[in-house]
Write a structure and sequence with these properties.
The structure holds 2 protein chains of 2 kinds.
Chain A lengths: L2 H13 L10 H8 L1 H21 L1 H10 L2 H11 L6 H12 L5 H17 L6 E5 L3 H10 L10 E7 L7 E7 L3
Chain B lengths: L23 E5 L5 H7 L5 E4 L5 E4 L2 E4 L1 H8 L7 E5 L12 H13 L2 E7 L2 E4 L2 E7 L5 H17 L4 E4 L14 H12 L2 E5 H11 L3 H7 L5 E6 L1 E5 L2 E8 L3 H13 L5 E4 L6 H4 L1 H15 L6
Parallel strand pairs in B: 1-2, 1-14, 2-5, 5-6, 6-9, 9-10, 10-11, 11-14
Antiparallel strand pairs in B: 3-4, 7-8, 12-13
The chains are: A mainly alpha, B alpha/beta.
Chain lengths: 177, 302
């Protein structure tokens, strides 16, 4: 590895907040301490926010309601090799959130991603489970009103496929035996 | 349509004759706004396009966006383009972007390109996009690598290649060259030209206390082929190179001063982001172009 390659990797890791121990090099230490490092990261994250906001409308609204949008986009930027192309960055963000520990965030991200895939011609069928009525959720997100709590009695299964009229169908299954 | 001027056969660098008439005027066009295009086309000599902005990521890889290309090819045979890249990442130690080269090949095959340029920067490391641009350290190793890559571009494409210095934010790497020395070495060894971004100089001056006059005194201004003008904003106390405003009068004055001293400038380009158009408005963009032509682009030889 050349000195240049090593240097650039160090800077990437600093920018993406991956450096666990302080580097030995005095210049890299100065970079790590500089407020401008944070500035550059903030600008990069701002551009990723723009991409995500434009490509993942519903997930963005949910995260803004939760107050976690900025922090999650920053984590996404730091952890993922985010494409410079907005459409691809949006898809990557939804894929990344599809395993989120909050089931509502995960369901909504999976839903937006599946709709995007099917609209682009994906012939497959996707099924996403929800802990609450998705129609109510979308109404809340659209109006900005508080989210309704999970529905303890029902599980909602949303199917997305080109074979379904309007692409989407929702089945409600009782959780009561 | 005014996208024709007397500069069809121009070159760049030291082999070209000194400027004998006014430089051309160019501006950014990132497609998708035909009303804007209709208004700016009669005001400029060239359109500046970025392959990164007129392409999209597809399952088969990155491709030019056909709708956007239709807009550009629809301008007709008189239109001429300045290609200004973002995604080449010419200074990545691990190699520059092959995706960008494929886009560039396609652009050259389909549009009349007067020259092309790229930022003197790296935007990816080991194929990982950084989401920002970083300047290479000014070392012998970086210089040798860049010269090889510039030579590759010069062999591959039949028009001049220019490099643009970028705004710096991070503490300087203790390199072996000053900013001007490094640019001079690049242009001397390869014959490439330079884009001098006047707004970037102002950002460095304001953020870092960069001595612009000293830099201009050291720089081989005969290598400067194009000037970039833009306006931006303050963010977290720094002047940042986000092109969202009309040029400030101080930017225009500095550009005028450079034009007096740089004998081979062939074009002045007003840059703005697509995202800034709703706030800027078409009237302001057209007003800026008319203003720049009036105050900067008169015939200095006359």
């Amino acid at each position: 590895m050349t000195a240049l390659a090593e240097y650039q990797r160090h800077l990437r890791d600093l920018l993406k907040n991956r450096t666990i121990s302080a580097p030995d090099d005095p210049h890299l230490q100065a970079v790590a301490r500089s407020p401008e490092l944070r500035l550059l990261r903030d600008i990069a994250v701002w551009w990723r926010e723009l991409a995500v906001n434009g490509q993942c409308t519903w997930t963005t609204r949910l995260l803004r309601q939760y107050g976690t949008f900025h922090a999650l986009v920053e984590s996404f930027y730091c952890e993922v090799k985010v494409s410079p192309y907005m459409e691809r960055a949006g898809e990557q963000f939804l894929d990344w959130l599809g395993n989120h520990e909050d089931p509502l965030i995960a369901s909504l991200a999976q839903f937006e991603r599946a709709v995007s895939r099917v609209r682009q011609g994906d012939p497959g069928e996707y099924c996403i489970a929800w802990d609450r009525n998705p129609d109510d959720l979308f109404a809340c997100l659209k109006s900005g009103s508080p989210l309704l709590p999970p529905d303890p009695d029902w599980r909602y299964l949303v199917y997305i496929s080109r074979q379904i009229p309007d692409l989407v169908r929702c089945d409600r299954i009782s959780l009561r035996s | 349509m005014k996208l024709t001027d007397t500069i069809a056969d121009q070159g760049t660098g030291r082999d070209t004759p000194l400027r004998s008439s006014r430089p051309a005027l160019a501006t950014t066009y990132e497609c998708g706004d035909p009303l804007l295009l209709q208004r700016i086309a009669p005001l400029v000599d060239y359109l500046e396009i970025s392959p990164d902005s007129i392409s999209r990521s597809t399952p088969e890889g990155v491709r030019l966006d056909e709708e956007m290309m239709a807009e550009l090819t629809g301008l007709g045979g008189e239109a001429r383009f300045l290609v200004h890249g973002v995604g080449l990442s010419i200074a990545s130690a691990g190699g520059f972007s092959q995706d960008y080269i494929r886009l560039l090949d396609d652009v050259f095959a389909r549009l009349p390109v007067v020259w092309h340029s790229e930022h003197l920067a790296y935007t990816m490391v080991d194929d990982e996009p950084l989401g920002t641009m970083l300047p290479p350290p000014r070392t012998r190793e970086a210089l040798d690598m860049l010269c090889e890559r510039i030579a590759f571009l010069q062999r591959r494409y039949p028009v001049p290649f220019l490099l643009e210095h970028i705004v710096r934010f991070l503490p300087e790497y203790p390199g072996e060259y000053s900013e001007a020395e490094f640019l001079n070495a690049l242009t001397r060894r390869t014959g490439c030209g330079l884009v001098l971004d006047i707004y970037n100089l102002e950002c460095d001056q304001e953020n870092l206390g960069f001595d612009v006059e000293k830099f201009l005194g050291e720089l081989d201004l005969a290598a400067v082929t194009e000037l970039h003008l833009a306006g931006g904003v303050h963010y977290q106390g720094y002047r940042v190179d986000v092109h969202t405003q009309r040029s400030r009068e101080s930017t225009i004055a500095l550009a005028a001063s450079v034009l007096e001293r740089a004998p081979r400038v062939r074009a002045v380009t007003f840059e703005f982001l697509k995202e800034a158009i709703p706030r800027l408005g078409h009237d302001a963009i057209c007003g800026e172009l008319q203003h720049l032509r009036e105050v900067l682009l008169y015939d200095r030889a006359g």
